[in-house]
Design a protein that fits this description.
Layout (H helix, E strand, L loop, with lengths): L2 H22 L1 E7 L9 E5 L11 E5 L5 E2 L2 E5 L3 E6 L5 E7 L4 H4 L8 E8 L5 E5 L13 E5 L6 E7 L4 E3 L5 E7 L2 E9 L2 E3 L3 E4 L5 E5 L3
Parallel strand pairs: 1-17, 3-6, 5-11
Antiparallel strand pairs: 1-13, 2-12, 2-14, 3-4, 6-9, 7-8, 7-10, 10-11, 14-15, 14-16
């Protein structure tokens, strides 16, 4: 077999392996209990790495109603924060990395945390893009990102950043779906209103849907 033949065979093998790996992946779906007043939650698979991070920017908009939309979002490393102003007045979008460990080691912890980005949006129609980098990803030591407006301190939103695609935001009824999860035992975790629960351990098998109910409240 010549060089071209070897390359062709290797390529065919890589395609077969990729298809097999995809076929083995399963779907984790279920529900986080609670009420609408509890707000949405972020659900993710802990400890699973992947190079297939979604090409999906995280858009955070100051609406004409004087609030951030969406209230809760996820971001993926390698993409961008897109900060928009759709209101008729100036806003200042300030992203803070919550530093959970400060509560234990500091007598004067920062109120919100360390600044990630602080961007002035002087009028309607302004849009600014900022990169999402590995430092921004969620870890217990660093926590989540809180978004506030310096000019309107009652406006808040929240972002959790991941370096893998296995994360989802619950719908109004608490349901969620995380597709293409690798087979094996995985810890499902839940973030809601600033606190994290370990959720449950799921066992993903043979591309079959795995159902899980995580009780809160």
């Amino acid at each position: 077999m010549g060089t071209k033949g070897i390359r062709r065979a290797c390529l065919q093998l890589a395609v077969v392996l990729a298809v097999a790996a995809s076929a083995e992946a399963g779907e984790v779906r279920g529900k986080v209990t609670g009420t609408i007043e509890d707000g949405p939650a972020v659900v993710w698979i802990e400890g699973v790495s992947s190079s297939a991070v979604p090409k999906q920017d995280t858009v955070i908009t100051h609406t004409a109603g004087g609030k951030f939309e969406p209230f809760l979002s996820v971001g993926f490393v390698g993409n961008s924060f897109v900060l928009r102003n759709d209101d008729g007045t100036m806003h200042n979008t300030h992203l803070y990395m919550r530093l959970a460990y400060q509560k234990e080691v500091s007598q004067r912890p920062l109120h919100y945390g360390a600044t990630v980005y602080n961007v002035a949006l002087p009028h309607s129609g302004v849009e600014v893009r900022k990169p999402i980098v590995p430092f921004h990803r969620y870890r217990e030591e660093t926590g989540f990102i809180e978004v506030v407006c310096n000019r309107h301190p009652d406006e808040h939103a929240f972002v959790l950043v991941f370096d893998h695609p296995y994360a989802a935001i619950t719908k109004e009824d608490g349901s969620f779906t995380i597709p293409e999860v690798p087979p094996g035992e995985h810890q499902v975790r839940v973030w809601r209103a600033g606190s994290v629960t370990k959720g449950k351990v799921v066992n993903v098998k043979d591309s079959k849907p795995t159902e899980v109910v995580i009780e809160q409240g």
